[in-house]
Amino acid sequence: MTLKQALLSYLIALAVFFAVDMVWLGLVARGFYRRYLGAMLSPKVNWAAAILFYLLFIAGLIVFVVKPVLLKGGTFEAAGLGALFGLICYATYDLTNLATLKDWPILVTVIDLVWGTALGGVVSLLTVVLSRRFLKI
Questions:
Q1: What is the rounded (10 degree) CA torsion for 114, 118, 121, 124?
Q2: E strands within 31-104?
Q3: Can you say how many angstroms the Cα of residue 120 is from the centroid of all Cα atoms in its chain?
Q4: Which domain holds residue 50?
Q5: pLDDT by residue (tens digit) across 56-108?
Q6: How far apart are CA 113 and CA 25, in angstroms?
Q7: How many structural domains compose the chain?
Q8: In terms of C-beta distances under 8 Å and separation of at least 24 residues, what long-range contacts does 14-22 make, across chains too?
């Protein structure tokens, strides 16, 4: 995989991640987080932190899932490895909050872990499929 292919796969993953996560945050889970985290939520999104998370999460997917699968794995291996990566990343945040924050709802942790797992798997799978199709990898 060339550097150019890796960067293009990164952009594909970023677009897929952003589209899927915006549907989740904007439509599906918006009321959920307000209901369970209302007083803890900031009135304004810290966009620098959010964007940095997206950029780092996608970099992790590319390095640890997409590139290895594109070089040697089967397409559906991306879904499993991506799901595991998503679970680990989201668990780091949610389980730390559960361990250290007063009144952190366990339901939020469970839902976030399921979401992170699904998101990592879907983004990885679609990135591999689209990279193979459009980048001829």
A1: -120
A2: none
A3: 5
A4: 3-135
A5: 999 999 999 999 999 997 899 999 999 999 999 999 999 999 999 999 999 99
A6: 14
A7: 1
A8: 14/54, 14/55, 14/58, 16/122, 16/123, 16/126, 16/127, 16/130, 17/54, 17/57, 17/58, 17/61, 17/119, 17/123, 18/54, 20/119, 20/122, 20/123, 21/54, 21/119
